[in-house]
Design a protein that fits this description.
With 284 residues, the chain is α+β, with helices and mostly antiparallel strands. The chain folds into 2 domains: 2-120 and 275-282, Diaminopimelate Epimerase, Chain A, domain 1, CATH 3.10.310.10; 124-265, Diaminopimelate Epimerase, Chain A, domain 1. It has helices at 25-38, 75-87, 161-167, 177-185, 225-237; strands spanning 2-8, 11-17, 45-50, 59-65, 95-100, 103-109, 114-119, 124-134, 139-148, 152-157, 196-204, 207-214, 219-221, 245-248, 254-262, 265-274, 276-282. The protein has a 17-stranded mixed sheet that branches. Helix 2 (75-87) links the parallel strand 4 (59-65) and strand 5. The longest helix has 14 residues, at 25-38. The protein is globular, with a radius of gyration of 18 Å.
Length: 284
């Protein structure tokens, strides 16, 4: 079985053309767990390009975190599957529809490197939640926000006395991200699904920097598409930045999140960034 590895701004995936249903849906979870544990130690997840279930869609993306968990949208993965489909002549148009989980997303191939994915409105947004978390030194007060953009995300804005006190620092470079991210990922208020955790700082009026602990990967990743989207939206609603928002991720790449805010509702939401092939090979 042929595979290709694609990187979405540092988020790396094994890509498999599964239109022949060689790996049926009910076996994809275990297949992912097996190849990630045995062969791909540093990969963030596996993406199967399957036949669409709905009319009007070009392809279906079945995305699995490396632990086999399924059921959440992956923004960087969507850009990668769009470029994968285009590069392999599975689609010939530069504008087409991708299915993922229970929704559809418009993909646009901008050039040989960059892809734009359009998102529906966030399903839920909760700003400035006061919680208490135990980071090993007793309960600490923390202010964070939550949004569901077909994936659950927490946003911890580092510029603030309360969060600096809880996390010891307001510097993204000095932050022990895997320690704090893991604890907040399992925070009781967001169970049973848990959440991805984004730590964010503002650079300018339309630029932010982000580091993300990803649920299902269970460590920091170099980029997280839905985390990028969520963080840009949250900080815009808090009037810290204005769209379009440029986002610097841990890989060193910049991505762009664009949207409109009308009556506190998010419209015309999109994520734009790189999606490139890294390597290819065969699985026995």
């Amino acid at each position: 079985m042929k595979y290709e590895i694609y990187s979405g701004a540092g988020n790396d995936f094994v890509m498999i053309d599964n239109r022949n249903k060689e790996i049926p849906f009910e076996k994809q979870e275990q297949f992912t767990i097996d190849i990630c544990s045995q062969r791909f130690k540093d990969i963030d997840g596996v993406i199967f390009l399957d036949l669409p279930l709905k009319g009007g869609s070009a392809v279906r993306m079945n995305y699995y975190n490396r632990d086999g968990s399924f059921g959440a949208m992956c923004g960087n993965g969507a850009r990668c599957i769009a470029m994968f489909a285009f590069n392999n002549d599975i689609v010939n148009d530069k504008l087409f529809i991708i299915e993922a989980v229970d929704d559809t997303y418009k993909a646009e191939i901008i050039d040989e490197l960059n892809v734009r994915i359009s998102f529906p409105e966030p399903k839920e947004i909760r700003l400035d939640l006061n919680i208490e978390a135990d980071f090993g030194e007793g309960l600490k007060k923390l202010i964070l926000s939550y949004a569901n953009v077909a994936s659950d995300h927490l946003v911890v804005f580092l510029n603030g006395k309360e969060n600096k006190s809880a996390l010891i620092t307001n510097s993204l470079d000095k932050l022990d991200l895997n320690k704090y991210g893991k604890i907040l990922r399992f925070q009781k208020e967001f169970q049973p699904r848990g959440a991805n955790v984004n730590f964010v700082s503002a650079i300018s009026g339309n630029e932010i920097r982000i580091r993300t602990y990803e649920r299902g990967v269970e460590r920091e990743t170099l980029a997280c598409g839905t985390g990028i989207v969520t963080s840009a939206v949250i900080l815009a609603l808090k009037q810290i930045v204005k769209p379009p928002v440029r986002v610097l991720v841990e890989s060193g790449e910049w991505l762009k999140v664009d949207f409109k805010i009308k009556d506190l509702m998010i419209k015309d939401l999109s994520l734009e960034g790189s999606a490139k092939k890294i390597s290819e090979g065969k699985l026995n």
